[in-house]
Amino acid sequence: MRLAPLFRVLGTLVYGFIGWELGVALAQTNELTTDSARYIVPATLICGAFGYFLAPWIVIAPARAARNSLRQVPIDELLAGTLGLAVGVLIAALLTFPLSRLPAPFGNVFPLIAVIIFGYLGATVMVLRQADIWGLMRPNRAARASLLGAEPAAAASTTQTLLLDTSVIIDGRIADVAQTGFVMGTLTVPRFVLNELQYIADSPDVLRRNRGRRGLEMLDRLQNNSDVKIEFIDIDPQDAQQVDDKLISLAMQLSAAVITNDYNLNRVARLQGVKILNVNELANAVKSVLLPGEEMPLKIIQEGKESGQGVGYLEDGTMVVVENGRRYLNQEILVQVTKVLQTNAGRLIFAVPDGS
Description:
The protein has 356 residues and is α/β, with parallel strands linked by helices. It is 57% helix and 15% strand. The strands form two sheets. Strands 6-10-11-9-8-7 form a six-stranded mixed beta sheet. The protein has a five-stranded parallel beta sheet with strand order 3-2-1-4-5. Strand 8 and strand 9 form a beta hairpin.
């Protein structure tokens, strides 16, 4: 449907109305007589022609720009803007009567100006402060918890929003953790994270493409699990460009926590006061505890960096470096723990063959 002719007619009518009002002001009467027509008719025709010929610049181009912008506006901002526009127009309607009592031409023009100004202000304020406004409309969590007979802190913790990072979705362990029931909150995936996953899944590089598809499969697994609460949101912070920056901004806006295994995102988010739940730290925390002097069976599968060292791995992936273990390569032996080191990458265990 071509809207250019309709917009030209609209421009002609709007500017023709403005010309009519100017002619009435010049003639000092709103009655179309022979004398007043010398002012009203030329002013109406000139302004109407002005609106017709300039419609591509003053009507059509802004309308196309608005249409293209609306396609990229998240649904929550669109609803907030519509509600704010309605409130602004309502306020302007209440001011119409006193403004219409002003002397001509102000009494005829000012009500229209009031509608434009208050409509714009209402939509702008609602979009920019929507989080605060929606927060005022929500029931108080503490009051709701007291009605249910629960502690406010406990009620708040069960409803916490948990934002998922791209890396933790691709990693996949969050699906296993959530299935156990230890995740007390709603797993939330922003639209920009989902878009990044789709971009990775469409990559020409085979490894990146497989990682992206694995992430999408993990989301499908979480969504099909009735015991896991997961939702997708369209909020896209406009004050950031990169996905990690948007995730931090959104977490601050929603007072949410971020689940990730990205070391850099972990550090940057904590510097800005955002709560981080690191899957790697969780994995290290639930590993079995080994103390110096304990014995355990271990298969030596490769050589170590130092001379004579052998390396094996526990079931949870923890590396065990065995001194003088090279001669037992590809054999399962009994080793004794001598030292346990905790590093940023995880735990590192040093041991010696039993009896040596």
